[in-house]
C-alpha cells in the first residue's frame, strides 16, 4: 500500500541575537555586526554615532575591526588605512590659563552654575574619523550681479545658497574697468585726503592741518535729521524710536566696541564713523541701514513700516550707483553697511550676495589679489580695520556654508599688526570681539579649507586625518596671551575666559563633525556641548546666586554677538529638552541692530531630528530645506 506524503517546507531560519552583540544594538532591536574597532565600538554604532555598550562578558574577546572610507558595514575585509604617525594621547582637555586677577578675588572662579567635569579626550582610531557622509557644495554668487544693478524686493530664496563658489566674469570686468584706485608700490587713491586726515596726516605730512573726522554726535545728528523727515515731532514714541535708531547705529549696542578701553573707544568711534560721513555713497549706505532699522522698531501693523522699507531700498540703490566712482576704501566701508541692510531686510542669502561683491572687489585690487591676507601695507588704519572685518565675515561664512576662505590663512600664523589712529594699535592678539582672539578664526579657517581639500580629493584620507589631529591638538593646547596694557576687572576676565572656552569647544565640535565625521551623540561632542552650556550659564559675578529652577538662567550681562557661534553650534547638537531650553534662551540676547535670528533654524533642525529619530547633520538639513543661515 502506497501512502502519499505531503511535501513539508523547511522552517524559516530564525535569527537569534548572539550574546557577543553589543547592548546598544540589542536595545535598538538591530542586528549587531559583531565587528569592533580598537575602542570596542561596533560598526553599526560607529556609523550611527551611538555609544556602544559592551555585551555579555562570557563570550570570546572582541576582535578589532576597522573600515576604510567607501566601505560598507557588510564588508570587513578592506585593509585598514595605516596611520601616518602614531597619535600621542592628548592632555586633559580643560586647561584654563591662569588669570591675573586681583588678590581680593578667589583663586578659583565661582560660577552660579556648576561646571561639568571635563575628562581627557579618548584617542579615537582612524576608522572612526573616516566616514561616507557626503560634503555639500558651497554658495555661489549670482552671475549677473553688478554694482550698478539695484536689488529688488525679491525673496531670499532667489539667491542660490549651496552652489559652487566662483567669481563671475561680469563682476571682475566691472571692477577691472574702474580707474585704478591704488598704484604700486606705495598706497594711493583719489581719496588720499580722506585717508591721510583720518590718521592725522595733512598735506604737510604727519602733524599737519588735515581734515578732521566728524565726531560721533555729528553722525547721530545726520541720521536724526534725514530720518526725521515726515515724522511728527509732537509724538513721544516717534522721538524715542528715532533716538533709539541713531543710538543703535552709532553705538552698535556697544558690543563690538567692548574690546577697547574707554579712552580708545571714543577714538575708534570718531575714526570709523568719520568715514561714514566722508562721502555721499557711504552716507547713503548708512541711511539704508538706519531706515531699515527704523522700520523694524515699528510695530508690524504700523502704516509707516512699509514706507521706511522703501526708503531703505531707495538709499541702497543710491549707494550702489555712487559706488562706481568711489575709491576703494569708500567702496569697502559702504559695502559693509549694505551687507547689513540686505541681510536684515531680505535674509542671509541677500547678505551673502553683497559679500560676493566684496570678494570681487578684493580680488580685483592690485595689492590684494585672489587669495590675499587681510592687510595692505601703507594703507590707512581704518581700511585695514575694515579688511579684518571682511576676514571675520569670510571665516564665519565658510563655517556656515562649506566653502574655502577667500583670505589666505594657511601660510601665516597670525594677522599683521598696524596702527589704527594715534597710539591705538591693533596687534596679532587684539580681540575681534570681547573674548574672541584672532587665533580662533584662524583655527576655523584652516578647518574649513582642510574639509574642502578632502571634498575635492586634493588630499588622501590618511593625510586629512593626520592634519586634523594636529589642528585638534593645537586647539586643545592653545592658551591666549594676555594683553598687559588692558585693565580689566575680575568680572571681565571671567567673562572673556568663558567666551574663549565656549569658542574652543565649538571649534572642536565642528572639527569632529566635518573632519572626523562623528555624530552629535559621540562622547567627545556631548562633553563639548555640556561645556558650552556650562560656560554660557556661568555668572561672571561671584556674588550672584544660581536660580532655583532646574534650567540655569543665562546672565543678563551676556552679550550675544561674541557668543553667537558657540550657541548655535551647541543648539545643532542639543537633543534633550534641557539643552534646547538653554540654547533657546541664549538666542534671545540678539542685538536689535544686527544679528540674524537663528532660533527658527535651530528649531527646524530639532524638528527634523525628532522626526527622523536620530541626530542629523545640520548642514544637510538646511540644504534639504533650501534654507541658508548666517552666524551673526
Automatic annotation (TrEMBL):
Presence of keyword Magnesium: no
Bias type Pro residues, positions: 81-95
Keywords: Nucleus
Compartments (UniProt record): Nucleus
SUPFAM superfamilies membership: Zn2/Cys6 DNA-binding domain
Biased composition (Low complexity): 68-80, 96-107
MF annotations from Gene Ontology: DNA-binding transcription factor activity, RNA polymerase II-specific; zinc ion binding
Domain (Zn(2)-C6 fungal-type) ranges: 21-52
Annotated protein name in UniProt: Fungal-specific transcription factor domain-domain-containing protein
InterPro entries found in the cross-reference section: Fun_TF, Zn2-C6_fun-type_DNA-bd_sf, Zn2Cys6_DnaBD
Pfam families: Fungal_trans_2
PROSITE patterns xref list: ZN2_CY6_FUNGAL_1, ZN2_CY6_FUNGAL_2
Gene Ontology cellular component list: nucleus
Location of region: Disordered: 48-107
Amino acid at each position: 500500500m502506497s501512502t502519499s506524503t505531503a511535501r513539508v517546507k523547511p522552517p524559516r531560519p530564525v535569527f537569534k541575537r548572539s550574546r557577543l552583540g553589543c547592548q546598544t544594538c540589542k536595545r535598538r532591536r538591530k542586528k549587531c555586526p559583531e565587528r569592533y574597532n580598537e575602542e570596542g565600538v561596533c560598526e553599526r554604532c560607529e556609523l550611527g554615532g551611538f555609544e556602544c555598550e559592551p555585551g555579555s562578558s562570557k563570550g570570546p574577546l572582541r576582535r578589532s575591526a576597522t573600515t576604510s572610507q567607501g566601505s560598507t558595514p557588510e564588508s570587513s575585509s578592506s585593509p585598514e588605512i595605516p596611520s601616518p604617525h602614531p597619535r600621542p594621547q592628548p592632555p586633559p582637555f580643560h586647561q584654563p590659563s591662569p588669570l591675573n586677577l586681583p588678590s581680593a578675588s578667589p583663586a578659583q572662579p565661582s560660577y552660579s552654575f556648576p561646571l561639568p567635569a571635563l575628562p581627557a579626550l579618548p584617542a579615537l582610531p582612524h576608522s572612526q574619523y573616516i566616514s561616507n557622509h557626503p560634503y555639500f557644495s558651497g554658495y555661489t554668487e549670482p552671475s549677473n550681479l553688478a554694482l550698478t544693478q539695484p536689488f529688488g524686493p525679491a525673496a531670499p530664496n532667489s539667491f542660490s545658497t549651496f552652489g559652487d563658489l566662483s567669481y563671475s566674469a561680469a563682476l571682475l570686468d566691472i571692477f577691472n574697468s574702474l580707474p585704478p584706485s591704488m598704484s604700486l608700490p606705495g598706497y594711493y587713491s583719489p581719496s588720499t585726503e580722506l585717508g591721510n586726515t583720518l590718521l592725522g596726516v595733512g598735506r604737510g605730512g604727519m602733524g599737519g592741518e588735515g581734515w578732521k573726522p566728524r565726531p560721533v554726535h555729528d553722525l547721530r545728528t545726520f541720521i536724526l535729521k534725514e530720518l526725521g523727515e515726515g515724522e511728527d515731532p509732537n509724538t513721544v514714541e516717534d522721538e524715542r524710536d528715532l533716538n533709539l535708531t541713531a543710538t543703535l547705529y552709532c553705538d552698535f549696542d556697544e558690543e563690538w566696541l567692548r574690546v577697547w578701553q574707554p579712552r580708545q573707544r571714543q577714538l575708534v568711534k570718531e575714526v570709523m564713523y568719520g568715514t561714514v560721513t566722508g562721502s555721499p555713497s557711504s552716507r547713503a549706505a548708512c541711511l539704508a541701514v538706519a531706515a531699515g532699522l527704523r522700520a523694524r522698531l515699528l510695530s508690524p501693523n504700523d502704516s509707516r513700516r512699509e514706507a521706511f522699507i522703501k526708503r531703505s531700498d531707495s538709499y541702497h540703490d543710491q549707494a550702489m550707483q555712487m559706488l562706481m566712482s568711489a575709491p576703494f576704501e569708500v567702496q569697502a566701508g559702504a559695502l559693509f553697511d549694505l551687507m547689513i541692510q540686505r541681510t536684515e531686510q531680505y535674509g542671509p542669502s541677500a547678505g551673502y550676495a553683497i559679500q560676493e561683491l566684496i570678494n570681487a572687489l578684493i580680488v580685483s585690487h592690485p595689492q590684494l589679489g585672489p587669495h590675499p591676507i587681510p592687510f595692505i601695507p601703507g594703507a590707512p588704519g581704518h581700511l585695514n580695520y575694515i579688511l579684518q572685518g571682511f576676514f571675520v565675515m569670510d571665516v564665519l561664512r565658510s563655517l556656515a556654508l562649506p566653502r574655502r576662505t577667500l583670505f589666505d590663512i594657511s601660510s601665516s600664523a597670525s594677522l599683521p599688526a598696524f596702527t589704527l589712529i594715534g597710539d591705538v594699535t591693533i596687534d596679532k592678539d587684539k580681540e575681534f570681539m570681547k573674548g574672541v582672539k584672532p587665533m580662533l578664526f584662524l583655527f576655523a579657517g584652516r578647518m574649513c579649507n582642510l574639509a574642502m581639500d578632502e571634498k575635492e580629493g586634493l588630499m588622501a584620507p590618511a593625510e586629512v586625518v593626520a592634519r586634523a589631529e594636529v589642528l585638534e591638538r593645537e586647539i586643545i593646547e592653545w592658551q591666549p596671551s594676555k594683553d598687559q596694557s588692558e585693565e580689566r576687572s575680575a568680572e571681565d576676565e571671567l567673562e572673556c575666559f568663558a567666551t574663549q572656552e565656549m569658542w574652543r569647544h565649538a571649534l572642536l565640535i565642528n572639527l569632529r563633525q566635518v573632519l572626523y565625521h562623528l555624530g552629535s551623540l559621540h562622547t567627545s561632542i556631548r562633553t563639548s556641548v555640556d561645556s558650552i552650556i556650562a560656560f554660557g550659564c556661568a555668572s561672571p559675578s561671584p556674588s550672584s546666586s544660581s536660580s532655583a529652577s532646574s534650567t540655569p538662567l543665562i546672565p543678563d550681562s551676556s552679550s550675544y554677538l561674541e557668543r553667537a557661534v558657540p550657541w548655535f553650534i551647541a543648539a545643532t547638537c542639543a537633543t534633550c529638552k534641557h539643552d534646547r531650553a538653554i540654547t533657546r534662551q541664549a538666542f534671545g540676547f540678539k542685538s536689535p541692530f544686527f544679528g540674524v535670528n537663528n532660533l527658527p533654524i535651530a528649531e527646524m533642525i530639532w524638528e527634523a531630528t525628532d522626526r527622523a529619530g536620530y541626530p542629523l547633520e545640520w548642514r544637510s538639513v538646511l540644504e534639504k530645506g533650501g534654507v541658508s543661515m548666517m552666524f551673526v
